[in-house]
Amino acid sequence: MKAQIIGLGNVGRNLVKLLQTKTKFLAEIGANIKIVSVSDSSGTAIDENGLDLSQVMKYKKLQWKGYSKYQRGRTAIDAINNVDSDLVIELTPSTLDGEPGLTNIMTAFRARRHVVTANKGPLACAYTELIRTAEEMRVSFLYEATVAAQVPIFCMINSCFLADEIVKVEGILNATTNFIIGEIENGKTFQEALDKAIADGWAETNYADDIDGVDAARKVVILANSLFRQRVKLSDVRVEGIRRVESMIRRATLAGEKIKLVCEIEKKQGKVKTAVKLGHVPMSDPLATVKHGDMGVKFLFKTSKQIFVSAQFLGPMQTAYAVLNDSIKIALNKRSC
């Protein structure tokens, strides 16, 4: 299967590393993935016979100097439209307006390319339009990595609970804020914990989306639209951040409880309420076990009742793994068609 990568940030570079280390494994399971183009904000490297990924990594560090396959100024859109491929892997950063990811994905659909993404922005802005267009073009659209990285959510619901109905979802879906809360529990001030999160790579220097709950709210929108079949917008979500968390943690510790930034989606009488809220979590709640930068989700079903899934999160490699897993699904499905 021929694939194109758009975006060589943390997730994109880790995906390239995974593809390098798993070449033999992918061949053994019949999911050969050949990368024919890689686009970043400056241009595109192209080889329709398949790029040497070690060369991609080498020359990316050199800002592409001396790399004959790299065409500076050639855009991702141009590559989608003019390079033969089966799959577009869209990994540009999440933004409030969904761009440039939204245009990249829609262009891929119209070119009849399957799409895998870790980009939350497009789904938070235009979920219904994206799903409808993918269906019209008869292409696959997988986005497991957009919510809680490698924690199984969409794949689990779509495989294991087809005869059940979700009533409520509660989750710790932002690793950065959970890391900061854990550091404060260990004795640091809010500012010290934030500084450590930046230094250790948990938070970007532009950290507002994380600590103000915006990143978590995007994930709530995706879950509400995907799992509850709603048309929820970012403006519909009641959002709270963690800037006042320090004093709350001190009080919660004395009470034998945890403070968590919890994403919540609940369906009552046919209506769905959504929120990102900072609150007390009793030690009996499985969400209390989600430590430091880890993430977890608790589902309440009509029949199956409570299901809880969580995973250790160490960084963008886990997100890249979820992207690779979705790509393998498409490769295997394409082989069987």
Q: Which descriptors apply to this entry?
A:
337 residues; Rossmann fold; seven-stranded mixed β-sheet; globular
Q: Tell me the overall shape.
A: globular
Run of helices and strands: EHHEEHEHEHEHEHEHHHHEHEEEEH
Count every helix, treating DSSP H or I runs of 4 or more residues as helices. Answer: 13
**What spatial order of strands do you see in the largest sheet?**
4-3-2-1-5-6-7
Number of domains: 2
Q: Could you name the CATH class of the largest domain?
A: Alpha Beta
Overall helicity: 40-55%
- In terms of DSSP E residues, the strand content is 15-25%
Layout of strands and helices, then pairs:
Layout: E1 2-6, H1 10-21, H2 23-28, E2 34-39, E3 43-46, H3 53-61, E4 70-72, H4 76-82, E5 87-90, H5 101-110, E6 114-117, H6 120-137, E7 141-142, H7 154-160, E8 166-172, H8 175-185, H9 190-199, H10 208-211, H11 214-227, E9 238-239, H12 245-254, E10 257-268, E11 271-282, E12 295-301, E13 306-311, H13 316-336
Parallel strand pairs: 1-2, 1-5, 5-6, 6-7, 9-11
Antiparallel strand pairs: 2-3, 3-4, 8-10, 8-12, 10-11, 12-13
Helix pairs in contact: 1-13, 4-5, 5-6, 6-11, 8-9
Could you characterize the architecture of this molecule?
Helix content is 41%, strand content 22%. It has a 7-stranded mixed β-sheet, with helices on both faces. It has a 6-stranded mixed β-sheet with strand order 9-11-10-8-12-13. It contains 13 helices and 13 strands. The protein is globular. The model has no long low-confidence stretch (mean pLDDT 95). It has 2 domains: 169 residues, NAD(P)-binding Rossmann-like Domain (Rossmann fold); 158 residues, Dihydrodipicolinate Reductase, domain 2, CATH 3.30.360.
